[in-house]
Amino acid sequence: MSLNYSKTASAPRRPFEKERLDQELKLIGEFGLRNKREVWRVKFTLAKVRNLARELLTLPVKDPKRTFQGNALLRRLVRTGVLSEDKMKLDYVLALKIDDFLERRLQTQVMKLGLARSIHHARVLIRQRHIRVKKQIVNVPSYIVRVESQKHIDFAINSSLGGGKPGRVKRANAKKAAGGGAEEENED
Predict the structure, then answer these.
(1) pLDDT in tens, 89-125
(2) CA 153 – CA 142 distance, rounded (Å)
(3) Which of 136, 170, 137, 131 is nearest to 154 (CA)?
(4) Strand, helix or coil at 151?
(5) Is the Cβ–Cβ distance between 31 and 66 less than 8 Å?
(6) Which long-range contacts (CB under 8 A, 24 or more apart) does 71-74 make?
């Protein structure tokens, strides 16, 4: 029987290193992450990308493996917006930081576009299915937004924030204002 999963995060070797703990806490606050595992997951992704780049840099320049895999890696990073178009070299891949990946999360993009008041508000809007990318509602805050999808982030069509029917509280208040005035006097 073959297993159909792979590792997504790796816990740190030293669990109580103060400098690392402080850095992780700062990232969690700045990007509105839920827990340390979200930080470790991005660190793991970055480590895999950097390891591949390091391995490809050891090969000769004209090696076909370096050419094809290197270009594929660079194209993938440019498409997700982690690497800019003018830095399409393997050397720049080694200089990537965690922040570069965290900036591309849907949660961060929603806040940067001004759809949410704070990074935490952005997470709540996404989880409550108020945000769509192109025509697809996305309710995963860690969704990595591609460069071409970035301009299509908006409120969902059926969301109360995006022009859909009003929410439960607004409907109740409207009902109360329309005909509830007389009923309140009778109750007292």
Answers:
(1) 999 999 999 999 999 999 999 999 999 999 999 999 9
(2) 14
(3) 131
(4) helix
(5) no
(6) 73/49
